[in-house]
Write a structure and sequence with these properties.
GO molecular function: DNA binding; DNA-binding transcription factor activity
Organism: Pseudonocardia hierapolitana
Strand content: 15-25%
Helix content: 40-55%
Pfam families: HTH_1, LysR_substrate
InterPro entries: LysR_HTH_N, LysR_subst-bd, WH-like_DNA-bd_sf, WH_DNA-bd_sf
Order of helices and strands: HHHEEHEHEHEEEHEHEHEHEEHE
Radius of gyration: 22 Å
CATH architecture of the largest domain: 3-Layer(aba) Sandwich
Family: Belongs to the LysR transcriptional regulatory family.
CATH superfamily of the largest domain: Periplasmic binding protein-like II
Shape: globular
Number of helices: 11
Length: 320
């Protein structure tokens, strides 16, 4: 099993096409096909199903792809760390960000790391908290923001903040950040909500269960952007973390207000793999992220957020 075979496998899986993979890898199409065929012969199992929608990995391939991504990531990181400039922290760091914090964190984090540690290459991944935790467990990412999580056997957690959920409505609803909205008011409107199984949906369902009103859910989606667009189009109200709508409310595209009766908060934490020591570039990015979140909360740029009890703790090596 060779690195070029694993690279071909992962690239085809990501783009769903041998032709596209060949272009990305700067090789001819038959070379990619040959690498996949050699892997299949070595392992004795088919790795892809060819469908009208493209190349679809088989269950056996999914197992190999997960481990191949981790191996390729570790090798990329090792190459970067072995060629640092004198006195410079260098390497590749993969960071998981919740979709709801992208607007408020992605650009400032990129700027902060580029300014303090120009030798570090950031790779930003977004997803639900459950997906990010899984990627962190398997080593596909180095650190991640997660929510409502404590230490696990494989992960060390640094609490960062607690934030309220907001009711989100079209601009003409006139919701205001300094005037909390009761759940009963929200439930009186059609609702656009995350799909069942989403962590945010679990918080929403728990809160509305104490209000004696049946919700009228008109749309469920797995996309926060789609939630906001459907609200803007007049299909109903929704519920989101404050950070996910701060820019839209400030720009007048939506209106929003903290929810009350009952109040609902979620905790945002920084998840790190349990290791005897953090690699220098990972520790540098973790510190930059922690500092940035603290600054945003303290300045009020992260609406309806307050520091967690131990949010001032800096990331440190976890016990093995």
């Amino acid at each position: 099993m060779e690195l070029r075979q694993l690279t071909a496998l992962v690239t085809v899986a990501e783009v769903g096409s041998v032709t596209k993979a060949a272009k990305l890898l700067h090789v001819v199409q038959p070379a990619v096909t040959r690498q996949i065929r050699l892997l299949e012969e070595e392992l004795g199992v088919p790795l892809f199903q060819r469908t009208r929608h493209g190349m679809v990995p088989t269950p056996a391939a999914e197992v190999l792809i997960m481990r191949a991504r981790r191996a390729l990531h570790e090798l990329d990181a090792a190459r970067a760390e072995l060629r640092p400039e004198p006195g410079e922290v260098s390497g590749i760091v993969s960071v998981g960000l919740l979709e709801s914090v992208l607007d408020i964190l992605a650009q400032p984090l990129t700027e902060a790391v580029a300014r303090r540690h120009p030798g570090i290459e950031l790779r930003l991944f977004t997803g639900y908290s459950g997906h990010l935790q899984q990627w962190l467990d398997t080593g596909e990412i180095d650190l991640s923001l997660l929510y409502n999580l404590s230490d696990t056997p494989s992960l060390s957690v640094v609490p960062l903040l607690r934030e309220q959920l907001w009711a989100v409505a079209p601009p003409d609803a006139g919701l205001c950040a300094d005037s909390p909205v009761p759940w009963a008011t929200v439930l009186a409107h059609p609702l656009v909500l995350p799909v069942s199984g989403h962590g945010l949906r679990a918080l929403i369902d728990r809160a509305r269960s104490v209000v004696p009103m049946a919700p009228r859910i008109v749309v469920q989606t797995n996309s926060m952007l789609l939630q906001k667009n459907l609200v803007l189009a007049g299909h109903g109200w929704t519920v989101l973390p404050a950070a996910g709508v701060a820019a839209d409310v400030a720009g007048g595209r939506l209106s929003g207000a903290p929810l009350t009766a009952p109040d609902v908060e979620r905790s945002v934490v920084l998840g790190l793999q349990h290791r005897n020591r953090l690699l220098a570039p990972v520790e540098a990015v973790a510190s930059s992220l922690t500092r940035l979140v603290s600054d945003l909360v303290r300045s009020g740029a992260w609406p309806s957020a307050r520091p967690a009890a131990t949010a001032d703790a800096r990331p440190r090596p976890a016990d093995g």
